[in-house]
Here is the input.
Amino acid sequence: MRYNLLLLLILLSFLLPQIISLQFNWWHHHPKSRHKAINATIHKCCPTHAGTTTPLYCCADELFDNGPEFPQEMCKDNEGVEMTTILKTISCAQTEFHRQIGGVHSPTDICRNFCCDFLMNVEGSTKETACSRTCAKASFAIGTSIKKQLRELRRMGCAAAKTQFAALEDCLKGPAQYFNDISQRSSSRSANDDDDDDEQDVEMAKMRALNEVCRQRAEEEQNS
Here is the structure.
């Protein structure tokens, strides 16, 4: 009896993560060969419930979901997770996932919407375009290669504006360390200061710094 119980517990320890994962969107959208790496990445990078090591459901469900919604939207809206935490989670996941699958350590840099601003007018409109929306999503994609992201944007005709697309391409291929450095500088500035105004200043400084990468690249293209 005791032996059977022990055997059942061992079996459950292997099956439980699989059973739990079945409820997540990414389970059906990514090949089975990557499920182990995805699970490991979620447990390393997602914010957890207070006082536990259990990842927030919203993060575990959305981190590898390639749906049209803003990444980690549920975490932001339902759990009150701050944008800075979401960006750090995505940055961690991009790095960790590539390491887990034995890939080259070159995760997509998080340029958010800033590089995508260069694609706003590709279709001759001052409003947000399909290209800029796809670009914003590509910046956050974890389980998709940079090559595939760029191929999709080219397929949509987004590469028509060569200067803008070159800036975007550099932004997507940029070193992950850039974002990490910005985050560390921001954290050190706000570590001993809880004032909301100062925190907003840090966020604005980070946004400007990210935007600067793309702006400089675009200027180089125009002057070459």
About this structure: The chain has two domains: 1-107, 111-224.
